[in-house]
Amino acid sequence: MIELPVAVAALYRFIRIDDPAAVRERVEPLLDAAGVRGTILLAHEGINGTVAGEPDTLRGAIAALQAMPGFDALELKWSGAAAMPFGRLKVKVKAEIVTLGDPAADPTQAVGGYVAPADWNALVDDPDTIVIDTRNDYEVAIGSFAGAVDPGTPSFRDFPAWVDAHSDELAGKRVAMFCTGGIRCEKATALLKTRGIDDVLHLKGGILAYLEQVPAADSRWQGECFVFDERVAVGHGLAPGSYAMDRERGLPVKR
Predict the structure, then answer these.
(1) In terms of Cα–Cα distance, which of 102, 128, 133 is closest to 206?
(2) Which domains does the chain have, with CATH numbers?
(3) What is the mean pLDDT of the chain?
(4) Among the residues of 8-79, which ranges form H helices?
(5) What pLDDT does 78 receive?
(6) Where's the Rhodanese domain (predicted)?
(7) Which tens digits make up the pLDDT trace of 21-76?
(8) Is the pLDDT of residue 94 over 90?
(9) Which amino acids are annotated catalytic?
(10) CA distance linking residue 171 with residue 210, whole number of Å
(11) For position 79, what pLDDT does the model report?
């Protein structure tokens, strides 16, 4: 973890939750008692969120969360911030933990293969692999992997339509996808499987894991990675980036 005054934990797991509201009643007091801030989403398909707090206290709260049934295998990414990036704690029950809007795509039933950050460069460099950035257009604009396909989608809800419009190009190909922390691209693999595309992979832990684990000298990443908190963007080593948020337009801009 980066040694900064505030620890930040991005987490998710696709797992069947029969009663998300009951889980919320356990999760919210646990995090609130630890002074944690940020957002946690719960749905029948799992848990997703980013939270922040004093490092030792946050580590204890996350350990308690992992001790809850089904949450032991959370996909968890630590980083740091110079100041608290969230105003308050919100724990919400939603229809989806990441909104795709296609009920056929069920990540609790089938997803593509996981690719470790150390093995990702081989896919980016492989001309026979279609590498797709599943993030929103404004995120792609400040950084992406060299040679990756940019669907130009304003939101993740638009991704199924893009896939359907390009189904002929994707059919029979190896497709590797990535996103910020792994959740959108993992759900995207479930979507592609419903479209009959079986040779589908995604970057385990997302861009954040890659930027943390792969040395800058070996990196295929260009630019910075947008994050959904007050840091706005991070770079290699998850160091704070050079962007601020234009509140009027809702877009990142260079400081």
Answers:
(1) 133
(2) 6-93 (3.30.70.100), 113-254 (3.40.250.10)
(3) 94
(4) 20-33, 55-66
(5) 87
(6) 125-219
(7) 999 999 999 999 999 999 999 999 999 999 999 999 999 999 999 999 999 999 99
(8) yes
(9) 179
(10) 27
(11) 81
Q: Hey, CA dihedral for 82, 239, 142, 92, is it positive or negative? A: negative
Tokens representing residue 104 in the block: 């056929």
Q: Does residue 251 carry a pLDDT above 90?
A: no
Distance CA 92, CA 83 (A): 24
Backbone angles phi, psi at 114, to 5 degrees: -95, 135
User: pLDDT tens digits for 155-203?
Assistant: 999 999 999 999 999 999 999 999 999 999 999 999 999 999 999 999 9
Q: Could you write out the DSSP letters of every residue in 97-142?
A: SS----TT--TTT---EEE-HHHHHHHHH-TTEEEEE-S-HHHHTT
E-assigned strand segments in the chain: 6-14, 37-43, 46-53, 75-81, 89-93, 113-115, 129-133, 143-145, 174-178, 200-203, 221-223, 225-226, 233-234, 243-246, 251-254
Taking the C-alpha atoms of residue 172 and residue 150, their distance in angstroms, rounded to an integer, is 20
Instruction: Answer left, alpha or beta for residue 115, where phi above 0 means left and psi between -120 and 50 means alpha.
Output: beta
Largest CA distance in the chain: 52
What pLDDT, in 10s, does the model give residues 117-129? Answer: 999 999 999 999 9
